[in-house]
Amino acid sequence: GALRDDLVTAVRRAVPDAVLGGDPDPAGRLPANAHFSFPGCEGDSLLLLLDAQGIACSTGSACTAGIAQPSHVLLATGTDPDLARGTLRFSLGHTSTEEDVKALAEAIGPAVERARTAGLS
Description:
- The protein is mostly helical.
- It has helices at residues 2-14, 43-51, 72-76, 81-85, 98-119; strands at 19-20, 33-37, 87-91.
- Strands 1-2-3 form a three-stranded antiparallel β-sheet.
- The N and C termini lie far apart (39 Å).
- The model has no long low-confidence stretch (mean pLDDT 84).
């Protein structure tokens, strides 16, 4: 959970309006998972921008990744469809390091800015 908490802190610092999904209490969250929605962004755009920097993430759950529509789970919980489309899931594994979190911290802010700009066209 500590590395996940570092990831959450890093994303919130880089993108203050990012919306953390799930239980706000760290004790109620999965220890190796963080899910964010980025207002004004398309998740697919963010995914491609981060992938180009070597950062792996997903626009959906492991069982629905690759489906080009907002998460049915998020929609069922009342999440706005536009916000749901800007969602990314970050999963940590046994090989994940603090350096991985630092790389995300450096990449996520510029990626969100670019994705938001692209969404205006």
